[in-house]
Specification:
This protein is an all-alpha fold. It has one domain. Helices cover about 60% and strands about 0% of the residues. Strands 1-2 form a two-stranded antiparallel sheet. Strand 1 and strand 2 form a beta hairpin. Helix 1 packs antiparallel against helix 7, helix 4 packs parallel to helix 7 and helix 11 packs across helix 16.
Length: about 325
C-alpha cells in the first residue's frame, strides 16, 4: 500500500470516527429545536427606558434537522457535479452555470450558513474543549470538501463555495501577479489560519471566532452587516475585477487546508491530457497563477476551467491534430 493510499484511508477513518462520536452524543438532534425568544415575557422597551431597543431574534434561525441534512446532501452533490463537469465534460460554460446556482443557494438563500470555512473554528474548539460539542451537520460540512480534495483536488473552491463564486463572477480583466509576490501573499492564509485557531481554542470567556467575525461577504448574503465589513467586502470585489479571487488565494484559511490535502489527489485538472501543446495560451488564461510550465498545479488550481476555454484542442479539437 502506497503512502497516498494510507493517508486517504486514515482520513476516511478519522472522518467516520468523528461523525460517530458526535452522533452518539446526540448533538445533531439538539439543533433541530426551533429557537424563539419569548419577547412577550421579557421586559419591554418602554419599561426599561433609556432608549433601549429589543435585540432581534438570532439570524438566521436554525432549520429543521432534515433540512440541515438536505444542505449537506446538496453540498456533496454540487461537488460531485463540479468534478464531473471539470474532469469529464471539460466545459467552462456549465461550470459557470453551477457557480451561479451555488452562489444563489449557498450564498444568498442559505445566507452563507453552509460554511466549511467558519467550521474550522467549531472543529478546533470541539477537539480541545471536552465541554463543547458540534452537530454532525457541521462536522460533515467541514470534512466533505477535504475528502473530495484528497481524491480530485479543490472542487469545492471551483463552483461550490459562495465566497469563491462571488469573486469568480466579477473577474473582468485579470492581471498576472508576479510569482514571488503571489507566493508571499499566499502565506498570509496560513498565518490567518493559525491566528484563528488560537483565538478559537481560548477559554470560553475570551474565545473569539475571527473567521466568522471578519467574513467579508456574509453581509452581502444576509443583506445586512457592519458598514466597515461591507466596505471591506466591496473592496475585495473591486480588486477581484483585476486580481483573480484575492480572498481565496491570499486569506481564505480553509483554502490553505484544501491546498495541503489536494497535493495527494490522484486526479485533477489536466489541460490537454492526450497531448500537451505547450503553446502557453492556458497560462495566459489562468488568473490564479495555477499553471506552471504549461501544467496545472493541483494545490493551486481552483477548478474554474478557464484553461479549457482558451485551449485550441478544447475549442476546436480537429484543428491541431
Amino acid at each position: 500500500m502506497t503512502g497516498v493510499q494510507r493517508f486517504r484511508r486514515c482520513l476516511v477513518a478519522v472522518f467516520a470516527f468523528l461523525i460517530l462520536t458526535v452522533y452518539s452524543a446526540g448533538t445533531g438532534l439538539a439543533q433541530a429545536v426551533p429557537y424563539e425568544r419569548p419577547v412577550e415575557t421579557a421586559p419591554q422597551e418602554e419599561t426599561i427606558g433609556g432608549g433601549y431597543a429589543t435585540p432581534p431574534v438570532q439570524k438566521p434561525r436554525p432549520r429543521a434537522y432534515w433540512l440541515q441534512i438536505l444542505d449537506v446532501v446538496l453540498l456533496a452533490a454540487a461537488m460531485a457535479v463540479n468534478v464531473w463537469l471539470v474532469l469529464s465534460r471539460r466545459d467552462r460554460r456549465w461550470v459557470l452555470a453551477l457557480t451561479a446556482a451555488c452562489l444563489a443557494y449557498f450564498g444568498f438563500y442559505r445566507e452563507g450558513c453552509i460554511c466549511p470555512i467558519g467550521s474550522i473554528q467549531n472543529v478546533a474548539v470541539a477537539l480541545t474543549d471536552p465541554g463543547y460539542s458540534i452537530p454532525i451537520v457541521v462536522t460533515a460540512v467541514f470534512f466533505l470538501p477535504l475528502l473530495v480534495a484528497a481524491f480530485y483536488g479543490r472542487a469545492f473552491c471551483g463552483g461550490v463555495c459562495p465566497l469563491g463564486a462571488m469573486q469568480e463572477l466579477v473577474v473582468l480583466k485579470p492581471v498576472q501577479v508576479p510569482r514571488r509576490l503571489d507566493y508571499a501573499l499566499g502565506l498570509l492564509k496560513y498565518v490567518y489560519l493559525g491566528v484563528a485557531i488560537v483565538a478559537a481554542v481560548q477559554p470560553a470567556v475570551t474565545r473569539d471566532f475571527l473567521i466568522c467575525r471578519f467574513d467579508p461577504f456574509v453581509g452581502f448574503f444576509r443583506r445586512e452587516g457592519f458598514a466597515h465589513m461591507m466596505l471591506i467586502g466591496g473592496g475585495f470585489l473591486v480588486v477581484g475585477m483585476f486580481v483573480g479571487r484575492p480572498y481565496c488565494r491570499y486569506l481564505c484559511p480553509y483554502g490553505g487546508l484544501l491546498s495541503w490535502i489536494s497535493r495527494v489527489a490522484k486526479r485533477g485538472v489536466t489541460i490537454t491530457p492526450d497531448k500537451e501543446l505547450d503553446c502557453g495560451l492556458c497560462a495566459g488564461a489562468c488568473p490564479y497563477g495555477a499553471i506552471e510550465n504549461m501544467r496545472a498545479v493541483r494545490k493551486e488550481c481552483l477548478y474554474c476551467a478557464r484553461c479549457y476555454a482558451a485551449c485550441p484542442r478544447e475549442t476546436n479539437p480537429g484543428a491541431l491534430v
